[in-house]
Write a structure and sequence with these properties.
mainly alpha, 121 residues
């Protein structure tokens, strides 16, 4: 399995978990502001990674993955805030945080590999 398909699979599954989290936050906690923020940033990770697959150039590919990375960093922030504010349990938050950080690591590794390849050519 290629790194791109791992990234796409993990980001899609992560987005689905975030959708469920946002549904919970909206229904149970009435916390619509943060749930909208994390919904946008988390689902954008996979959307931009998927767009990168169809990039018209290496530069476009890198740009899309950088957007995904920025969105992952923002999502990590919102997750940490939800944990600290007791909007979700530490257990729930840590599981999501672990997935988010894993996606960030894949994005960083992919970006480093592509950038290294560009410098060699």
């Amino acid at each position: 399995m290629s790194q791109n398909s791992v990234l796409l699979d993990k980001s899609l599954r992560f987005s689905a978990r975030i959708v469920k989290l946002c549904r919970y936050l909206s229904d149970r906690r009435r916390d619509t502001v943060i749930s909208k923020q994390i919904f946008r940033s988390a689902t954008s990770i996979g959307a931009n990674a998927n767009e990168a697959i169809y990039a018209v150039s290496k530069a476009d590919f890198v740009a899309k993955l950088h957007i995904s990375l920025k969105e992952a960093a923002e999502t990590e922030y919102w997750l940490r805030l939800l944990i600290l504010s007791d909007s979700i349990t530490s257990e729930e938050g840590e599981s999501l945080l672990k997935d988010c950080i894993e996606i960030k690591k894949i994005l960083i590794a992919t970006l480093n590999k592509v950038k290294k390849e560009q410098n060699l050519r």
